[in-house]
C-alpha cells in the first residue's frame, strides 16, 4: 500500500513531582519534545522530525504518552528523548524523564503492547503489595480489566444508552 | 456529581471564557477545531478515530481551577472531570473512551480519594498552597485503577476495528483462504466471532427472497406463476409484460407496468419501421368504457359533453352506424370551451336491424388511463348512473376470476414431475392460473353502474380486451399473414368441443355468408399498399383461427405482395366506400363469447405437445373443430390528418382481441417482421404526426396539469443533482420557468398587455385606427397603472413558482374583478385551449406568410375567410379569452428545439437583419444578472456561522436550528425563486408561448417543435407583422441565449 509510514514511540513520563502530572498536556509535551530535538539535533533535526510529529495519546494518570513521527527520522526523535530532564509549564520546572517502552509501526501494536505492559505492572503491584485494603482494590481492578477483555465485544451494543445517559448529566 | 445550580453548559462557557482571558487567544475545544475541516474529511476522520482512546489529562482542570476559583471556590476535581467528559460528548463517538478511562463507578471513589489526599497533601495536590508538600506515601489503589482503566480503553481500541473493510480483508495474504468471505469457519478462530456478526449484517442488507425455496424451486413454473400473480397485484401487468420486461426499460406509470423504450439502440430504426415497415405497440393499457342503452338516451346524455364546434360528435352518421371509429374531445357537461376532460375515441356496435329505435345499442369509449377517473365520473353523472349493479352477463368475469384462481391455487397438484399426456389432461391439469386481465381489481368492487331513469348501463371494461397497434405501411401484409380467418364448421359430431358458439354460428347460413364476406375483405386488405388509403377509422370485424398454429419456424420479414392486388374493382370500391356496415360485426362485442374464448384457449404447452406428436415433424397441425376461434375487431387508425404535407403518415391498424390471447397474437405478429416500440416511440409517433400527446399536451385538463407537475418535479430533482457550477444558471439565461410552462400567467400577462395597449392607443388617437391599435410593439415604459397591476398580481399569487399551473386567479378574485369589471369574470378566469375548428382554420390562414401565397389563395374561396382585421380579432378574443393555440413550428435553419423552449415575438430589427442576410441565425439574448446569487451566498454563510456556534451548544439545540433551517426552503442557485415577474417581457423579445415537444424531426429533416402560444399574443403578433414575414417567430431553448427563426403553422 502507498502511505506515509510512521513510527510510534510509546513512552512513560516518570516524575517524582505530582504537579508534573497536573501540567501534563499534549501541547506542552509536544513543545517540549520539539524543543529538545532542536537542542540536540539542531535546525535540521527539528525540521526533519517536525513533519508528521504528533502526540497521539496521553494519559496523565498513568503518564503514558504515544508519540508519532515519520519512519525516516524516528531515530532523531528517539535519540532526543533521553535529553528531556524537566517539564516546563507556566514558569515551573518539574524534573522528569521519559522512559521509552515500545517502538511500533502502528498505533495498534503500541496499544497491544500497552495492554500487556499494564497487566504486567498490575501483577507486579499485586505481588508486592502488603496492605490488605490496597491489595483488595488492586485485585478488583485487575479482575475488572480481565473481565473487560471478555466483555469488550458486547459493550459496543450497550454503549449507545450509556452515551445518552452521559449527555444528560 | 454537579452542584445543582450549575448546568454543564454554563460551567463550560465559564471555563472557556477564563481560558481566553488567561491565554489571550481563544482556545477551541477539539470538536470545534474539527468543524473547521471540510465536512467529508471530518466525517472520515471521525470514523477512523471513533474507537481510539482520547487523551486523559489533568492540566486542563488545573488551569481552569485557578480562574474558576474566583467564581466558585470548590469542586476542582469535578471541573477537571467535567471538561473532559464535555469535550467528549461534543465529539460523537469518542465519548466512550473518556468515560471508560475513569470508569463510572470509580470516578466517585477516585475523586473522593483525591479530596482526601488534598487534605493530607497527597500527590494530587491543589494548585497553589499545597504544592510544596511532598507526598508521604503513594496509594497503590489509585495507581492500579488508572492502569486498569487504561487497559480497558486500549482493549477497546484494539479489539474493535475502525476500518470499513471486512474481517478477512484485514488478514495478511498468506493467511487468506478460498471461500473465506462466506464460510466463517475458514477464518482463524479468533476472528470468527466478528466475521459472524458481519455476515449477519450482510444478510439483513440482502433482498429477501422466499427463504424456504431454493433457486430451482423458485424457477419452477408453478411457483413462478404464483410469484408473478403476487407481483402484479400492485401494478397491472399487460399480457405481454414478461416479453417486454426482457427487452424494454420498464416504468410504473398510471398504475401499469409499461415498457418505456427498448434496451437496444433503436430510435432511428423505430422511425424507419413507422414510415416504411411496421411498428407494433401494446396499447392494452388504454381503458374502455362501455355504454349500453337506447340510442337516443345515450346521445342525449352525452351531447352536453362534446361540442359540434370541435368537430364531429357521438352522433356523426358514419360513426353512429358503426362503420367508423370517431374521435372527439370531452368537456364537462355544458362547460365548453373550458374544463376539458380529454380526448377519446369511440366505436358504436353496428345495428343488426337498422332503423329500429327500440334496439339497445352498445358504445365503447376508449381513453387514456390518466383521463379515466374524471371521464368516468362525468359520464356517470350525465347518464345519472349511480347504482352499481351486480355482475350481469355482460360483466361477469372480473368478479369471478380472482375467486376461481384462489380456489384453484389450493388444489394439490399431484401431476408435477411426471409428464402428462395431453389426452388425459382434464380439469385439474391447470392448478394455478395466470392472472389474466386486471390483477389489481378488488373482487368485491363493482365495475358497472346502471341508471334507473335512462336505462343506460355503464361498465368499465378496462383490461378486458387487448389492443395492439400496428403502425406503418406493412401493417396490412403482416396482419393478413399472421391471421387466418376461421374455418367454417361443416361437420356433425362437433357437439363436444368447447367452441360451441362457433358451431352455433356455423349453422346459421346468414352468419356464414357474413363471415365469408369479411374474409374476402380481409384478403383484399393485403393488396393495399398503405393503410392510409382506406377511409379513416374503418372498422372490420373478423373471426380468426388460432394464430399459433401457422407460426413460421423462423422470424422473417413480410414483403408486400403486389400480385394480390389484381381485383381492381373490388379494391377500388373498398377504398372508396370502406368496409360495408354489416362486415363490422364481430363477436367480440358479446361478452359471453369473449369470455368463453378466453377460457377455452389451449395452453402453449398442450399445443406444443400436440405438435410433437405429429407424424411428420414440422408439418401443419390440424386441430379441426378443436381449434379456437377468436373474434377480432380491426380498426384503422388514421395517421397524420392535419396539415398538408405527409398526410397519412403513421397510419395503421388497431387490433382488439379478447383477453388472454395477447401473447398468442403478439409472437406471430413479431415473427412476421413487426418491430416493437414503447412509450417513447408513442411520443415520437404523435410528435411526427404533429398531434398532441396524451396527457402531456393537454394543459387545460386535470391529467395534463398533473403530468406537468410531475414532470417539473422530476426535472427539478435532476437539475439539483448536479453541482451549481455544472448546471445552467437559468436566472442568468433569463429563463423564468425552465421546468414547467406557466400557461396561466402567460395568458393573463398577455391580456393585461393587450388592455394596456388599447388604453394607450385610445388615449393617443381617439379614432382608434387599426394601425394605432397595435401600439408600439414593446411598451418599454409601461403605464404606472399596469406596473401596479402586475406587482399586485405578484403579491397575491405567491405560489406562482411552486404551483405554476394552479388556479392562481381564483386566489385574487377581488383584484381581477376591479380590473375587468365585467360579468364574464368567472368564465375568463380559466385557461382554455382553442379547439374550435372554424377559428383554427381562420387562424391557420392568417398565419400563412402572405395572402398571395398559393396555399392561402386556395383556402380563401373555400372557407370564406375573413381578413385579419381588428374586429375579427376582437370577436375571436371575446369568445375565447385567455386561450392557448396548439401550433407547430419548423425551424428555418439550424437548431433543434427542446421541450420548454420559449416561443418569442421577433423585433423589427430581427426582420431587418434577416432580410439583409438570408443566413442570419437569429439574435442573442443578453445575459441577465442573478439577484439571488448574493442572497443565497449570504444565507449560506449565515448558516455556516450558526452551525459553528451550535457546535458548542448541545445536540438538541443544534437539532432545533436544523429544523428551523429546513422549514423555510432554501432557494436553489440558478432558478428563479419567489413569484415570477411578468413572463412576457422578462427578456428582450416578448414571450409568446412554450414548446411542449421538440426535436430534430427525421421526417422533415429539420428541427420541429410543437407547443402552445397565447391566442392574444398570436393575434397581436400577426397583426403587427408585415404580410410577407407573417408567421415568423423566434425559438430559444431554456439553456441557451441564442434565438432561432422558426415558422409557425396551425394545422387543422
UniProtKB/TrEMBL annotation, chain A:
GO annotation, biological process: rRNA processing; tRNA 5'-leader removal
Q: What is this protein called?
A: Ribonuclease P/MRP protein subunit POP5
Q: Give a Pfam family name.
A: RNase_P_Rpp14
User: Which family, according to UniProt?
Assistant: Belongs to the eukaryotic/archaeal RNase P protein component 2 family.
- Oligomeric state and partners? Component of nuclear RNase P and RNase MRP ribonucleoproteins. RNase P consists of a catalytic RNA moiety and 10 different protein chains; POP1, POP4, POP5, POP7, RPP14, RPP21, RPP25, RPP30, RPP38 and RPP40. Within the RNase P complex, POP1, POP7 and RPP25 form the 'finger' subcomplex, POP5, RPP14, RPP40 and homodimeric RPP30 form the 'palm' subcomplex, and RPP21, POP4 and RPP38 form the 'wrist' subcomplex. All subunits of the RNase P complex interact with the catalytic RNA. Several subunits of RNase P are also part of the RNase MRP complex.
InterPro entries according to UniProt: Pop5/Rpp14/Rnp2-like, RNase_P/MRP_POP5, Rnp2-like_sf
Q: Name one GO molecular function term.
A: ribonuclease P RNA binding
Q: Which organism is it from?
A: Rhinolophus ferrumequinum (Greater horseshoe bat)
As for what it does, the entry says: Component of ribonuclease P, a protein complex that generates mature tRNA molecules by cleaving their 5'-ends. Also a component of the MRP ribonuclease complex, which cleaves pre-rRNA sequences.
List the Gene3D superfamilies hit by this protein, alphabetically: Ribonuclease P, Pop5 subunit
Q: In the record, what lineage is assigned to the organism producing the protein?
A: Eukaryota, Metazoa, Chordata, Craniata, Vertebrata
- UniProt-annotated location(s): Nucleus, Nucleolus
Where are the residues of the annotated region Disordered?
Answer: 149-169
Q: What cellular-component terms does GO give this entry?
A: nucleolar ribonuclease P complex; ribonuclease MRP complex
Give the record's keywords alphabetically: Nucleus, rRNA processing, tRNA processing
TrEMBL record, chain B:
| Compositionally biased tracts (Basic and acidic residues) | 407-425
One GO BP on record is: tRNA 5'-leader removal
Which residue ranges have biased composition labelled Low complexity? 758-768
Occurrences of domain POP1 C-terminal (ranges): 883-1052
Q: What is its main location?
A: nucleus
Domain Pop1 N-terminal span(s) in chain numbering: 212-293
**Protein's name according to its UniProt entry:** POP1-like protein, ribonuclease P/MRP subunit
Originating organism? Rhinolophus ferrumequinum (Greater horseshoe bat)
